[in-house]
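Follow-up to my earlier ticket, as requested here are the two runs.
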Amino acid sequence: MEPSAQGGLGLSDMLIRQFDDLGTAGDVSPVTQFNSLPERRSPTSMPMVSSFYDAESISDAGYRDPEHFVQHLRPLAENAGASLGVDANLLLAQAALETGWGAHFVGATPGRPLGGHNLFNIKAGADWQGPRISQSTLEFRDGLPVRESAQFRAYASAQESFEDYVEFLRGSVRYEQALAVAGDSRAYIREL
């Protein structure tokens, strides 16, 4: 039995809280500033200009704060959200939840704070042919927490992470119901 089934805080509940904290429920929070950031487009598949996504500004120390995290990832979330039919704010909330606003990436080291740029903590199954990072993780087996080593997908950039997230969801029967209700953020979160 999973913690959420026991009345604990499950992924759905945490995403809804994070999503609401982004100001989508009408509340004003420090992070709602990202709604007024100018939209940036590029001719590449993702709507981001490399000069806007200044990798050097985040490569040495990671993201400075939630606003910095959102500022750099918003164009990617907008493109991925449009591809999936999901609110970009929801994808930002999920990435924030999975990485602690960019403070905790799988494979992060002092010299490489973004680790494998895996914003959604997607594991590397047998079908994954790309780079991997091994990480100790806490899993629940028969309702009990078990520490084990797991393989996670690694990416060269946040853009690759968002692109793979879209492909991962689209390519899995497991997420068909979530994508079927993508226009309803709360229903999407529950199905996810």
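Run two:
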Amino acid sequence: MQRPILGVVICLAAVGAGLESPIQAQTLTSGTPGAIVLQRILVKVNGGLITQTDLEEAQIAVLRIRPVPPQTDAELEQVLQEITPEVIANAVDQELLVQRGREMGYSLSDEQFEEILEGIKEENGMNDEQLMSALELEQGMTLVQLRSVMEEQMLAGQVQQDQVLRRVKMTDTEAREYYEAHLEEFSEPATVTLREILIAVPAEGGGFNVSRDNQAQATADAVFARVLGGEDFEQVVSEVSDAASRTNGGLIGPIALGDLAEAVRLRIESLEDGEISGVERTPSGYQILKLEAATEPAPTPFDQVRNQIVDNVFNERRLEALNTYLSTLRSEAIIEWKDEGLKRLYDEVQARREALSGS
């Protein structure tokens, strides 16, 4: 995202988030009469602060990963209104995890931070000076700020690893039971391969021409008699069909049975491979179908989808366990909102999450 866009984000953040007037929110100042406001506090989490700047930086981070950035102020404001509820809820959760990490004695050592920096420089082919310049120009960060961000990510990740991931397991037996209970998810759908002959009925002046229609029907009936009498279907297609599929012998498919129009399914459901349907009037004209081949739903062998099942179910369980753990942290926390608008957004997100989890 270009830097000018980021400036707009900060200007519109209060509008998009539905925040209260700045004079109603607590602020951090230098303590000197007439001093400028340094930070605007939005919420306190066990005494830890989430400020206006924290919110704006989180909004910017989300905006940066969107495939198409907002192009106008109006679009930007709309996007901010959409993302801010989840952004503020995630910010509170992140603060709770970071605090728990500190309580558990985790920290980012100098050696670990140096390893991170060396990795960044090596991956991007940078020296120290280039890294500092890139941080300032692309991220608007100092090295101290980068370390703070990295440490918070490490603390939150370590808590999740110790308190959530290590307690989530899935056995082969459970994977097999999941496979059998959701067999349709791991099955190739039934398919059909058809061939068609179309005798088109051209529209005349946008209206219906009885004579043309009767002529087309008579032609289709004659064609149907030919293929029913044993003439090669593909050869007849090449001679008379008006469909685009004519160049391919009238071939359609293979196509999933569920993707066919209901009217077509009804016409072919009683056909055996190689059988031909009767003449049918369609919006384009008169059509004859031949069922070339059909396949039944085919389950993918368990061994081929085992890893997929383990990954999917493990991830579901991880998210459930994480939500449960965060719910416990929230219930034990003292969360003091300084902005009622944000509190409403936060409460809506938590209610929605609880509804989805079935709690």
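The only thing I checked on run two: Residues 73 and 243 are 49 Å apart (CA to CA). Let me know what else you need.
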